[in-house]
Structure formats: C-alpha cells, structure tokens
Amino acid sequence: MKIKTLFGLALLGSVSFSALAADVTGLWQTEPYKGITGGGGNGKYDQVRIHPCADNAENICGTIENAFMKDGTANTENDFVGKAMLVDLKPKVNRKTKEIEPNKFSKGEILHPHMNKFFRSSIELDKDDPNVLHLDGCLAFFCMGQDWQRVE
Length: 152
Hints:
Distance between the termini: 41 Å
CATH topology: Lipocalin
CATH class: Mainly Beta
Structural class: mainly beta
Oligomer: single chain
Largest sheet: 8 strands, antiparallel, barrel
C-alpha cells in the first residue's frame, strides 16, 4: 500500500512539474517580417526574450535580444536590439469563471520593429505544442498574427 501511494505521489509531482514547466517565458523567434507590413521587413526576423515585467511580475514583457537578416546573419542595422517589444501584457481572465487562463495574456502592446509602431496585443501558448506562441497585434479592427518558435 505504501509503495502504491509513494508511486502515485511521485507521478502526481512529475505531472504538476511538467505542467508548470510549460510557460511563455524564454527566448522566442519571430516569423520573418513581410515587406507588405511596411518598413521593409523582407524576411528579417528577431529573437525576443519574454520575461515577467519589472514593475509587475504578474504581467509579461519582452525584449528584442537578437536581430537577423533573411539569410540568418546578424542584422547590424537593427536599432531595436535591447528595446521592449512586448509591453505590459496582463494575464487573461475568463469572462465566465473570472479565473486567470494559464499562458494567455492580453491588453498589452507589441512593437512591430520594421514599422516602428506599437499595436494592441495578445499572446497565447499553443495548447498542443509548448514551443509555439501565438501572437496577435491589432490597430482598430485591422489585426495581424504570428506564430513564434521557442529557441530556449
């Protein structure tokens, strides 16, 4: 009986740890920017470090850590490395239950670095793949989205 109980607790502990391990923090790679969005993205992409915001650890922020050209070489012309890309995304609250939805954030802003503009934003970790992050940025009723890939 004790062995079954200990095994059950160990299994429960590993499941809980796995569930907690999947979160939005870490280093993420953007999709390549398309020229149609302005600013001449033309295949350039960035890596963004997502972390709790300094002034409110419940919210999520993100800083551009690396910038790349389409061919994967460093984008030395990018003035945005080290700047904020995600600003003050708040935990999303379920309207019916009033509970915080895990790994979903909204009511913040995202910078489109090749347009040099901030847009209203929301992010959500993919339910099936914790290495994919869905992002939406909107200006009025015009919205664009990207799926970022986890780097680390």
